[in-house]
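Reviewer 2 asked us to include a model.

Predict the structure of this chain.
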Amino acid sequence: MRETAHSGPKLSISGEVSSFLHYCRVEKGLSANTLAAYTRDLQAFSSRAEQENGVPGLEALRRHLDSLQQTGLSRRSIARHMATLRNFYRFLASEGRIDCDPTERLVPPRQWQNLPKFLNRPEVERLLVAPDPFKNTGLRDRAMLELLYATGLRVSELCAVRLADLQFEAGVLRTIGKGNKQRITPVGKSALAAVRLYLETARPKLLGGRPSPFLFVTARGGRMTRQAFWKLLGIHGKKAGIFRNLTPHVIRHSFATHLLEGGADLRSVQTMLGHADISTTQIYTHVMRSRLRQTIEKHHPRG
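Predicted model (structure tokens):
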């Protein structure tokens, strides 16, 4: 007999998914990117869930995640699938659609956890000076890279920064992150100087008299997009000699890792990254343990 999360009449998985997505969009105000990810993950789950008698239970969830692993899906993608399923089942439980939430007993296998990729400090320094300082776009790119590394923003948050969000005198940046939640992040002097230089010289020329509320704009005067920033990051990465999978999230990981290496506590890093749950931030403790082991092996007399 197959285990299900509901003892009552069979529920329509597609209908429950639609209700959940509507709740996320209207009541939680989640971003379009998050909604798109939820939709993809739940569509993959629904195709298997239709074979179950009711809402799938714990064993069915495990089989689904196992099948994702067997297809060669990355550990990060599998972790995202798990997060989607947890949020979906919590919604069903809160709405009284299921008797119990099986995801409360869903434990991710240790081998699925992956250490985040990050740059060392010399690599970061080479990347920051890669843009051409004699071009307007180069000054903009330098300012974006400096701000990204100084704050650990997500790429969507970086592109959405408005002029009014950055307070130079206080040295802080106001960010609207996931779930429409606001956070205040300190910004270092180097990033503030790079942004100020861009504002005073390059941005007016890029806009050519056109108004824009956004801090970072393109040569056509429009708002910088996520896709465009990914592309220019790859270009500057190659110029800096960084050829391995360089993404905006690698810079975010570098920001968090270097803070922890410098002595920052995990709670402070959680706040600056905008993580709702400390467990999300705890992935960086794996990095710290790894680095501590390397330090002992290299420097301890009996390492």
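The chain has a mean pLDDT of 85. The two ends are 54 Å apart (CA to CA). We have added this to the supplementary material.
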